[in-house]
Amino acid sequence: MIRFYFHPTPNPLKVALFLEEVGLPYEVVPVDTRKGEQHAPSFRAINPNGKLPAIVDTDGIGGEVRVFDSSAILLYLGDKLDRFVGTPADRGELLSWLFFVSSGIGPYSGQAVHFQRAAPEPLPYAINRYRREVQRHYEVLDKHLGGRTTIVGESYTIVDMSAWGWLDRAAVALPGDDDPLAPFPNLKRWFQSINSRPAVARARAVGSDHKFKQEMDEEARRAMFPSNYPPAA
């Protein structure tokens, strides 16, 4: 059994998509980041970094195994089940593009969202910097996808799932653009193909029976951006 620590944001959604694709039994454990539940000692014992997602595999080698960070989880589960990890010949490409998403598209998209939606005041340099980097990463992936249906090899892999999680929020990372993927036709075609998979609809429904906090009030800001505040005396 997989205990899946979840909040409805891009990185947990990637793992939800994998779990729904393979039909692996799992238990959703909601962690409300706007209430600060990610800082509870019980969760920090699973992910010392206090971020979502995380899993505990109760059937891991030698007993329970914790795994945190969405890319690590996708690799762990993919390797364990031998599903969606391509062929041995694909391994170098799979790792390269998986980390391209985790070190590029993901954090730059996250910072673009932060400075446009959460910063206390607009900072034009930061907004321009992160929007442009999001677009640059899209351009790299768009060029790579020319004549291709998947990012790695000849089949759908965890890299497609990982990239889908962030591309699904393109309109949030690039607000004001009516169709933020329009300048990237290969990327848009690929995204629409992944987005039409039946498991995507199931992944979107994960956690929908839990009422997560929606208000971005002072409690939420302190919980989500603790480094912006001085440590308690």
Automatic annotation (TrEMBL):
<feature type="region of interest" description="Disordered">
    <location>
        <begin position="205"/>
        <end position="233"/>
    </location>
</feature>
<dbReference type="InterPro" id="IPR010987">
    <property type="entry name" value="Glutathione-S-Trfase_C-like"/>
</dbReference>
<dbReference type="Pfam" id="PF13410">
    <property type="entry name" value="GST_C_2"/>
</dbReference>
<dbReference type="Pfam" id="PF13409">
    <property type="entry name" value="GST_N_2"/>
</dbReference>
<feature type="compositionally biased region" description="Basic and acidic residues">
    <location>
        <begin position="207"/>
        <end position="222"/>
    </location>
</feature>
<dbReference type="InterPro" id="IPR004045">
    <property type="entry name" value="Glutathione_S-Trfase_N"/>
</dbReference>
<feature type="domain" description="GST C-terminal">
    <location>
        <begin position="87"/>
        <end position="227"/>
    </location>
</feature>
<feature type="domain" description="GST N-terminal">
    <location>
        <begin position="1"/>
        <end position="85"/>
    </location>
</feature>
<dbReference type="InterPro" id="IPR040079">
    <property type="entry name" value="Glutathione_S-Trfase"/>
</dbReference>
<dbReference type="InterPro" id="IPR036282">
    <property type="entry name" value="Glutathione-S-Trfase_C_sf"/>
</dbReference>
<dbReference type="InterPro" id="IPR036249">
    <property type="entry name" value="Thioredoxin-like_sf"/>
</dbReference>
<protein>
    <submittedName>
        <fullName>Glutathione S-transferase</fullName>
    </submittedName>
</protein>
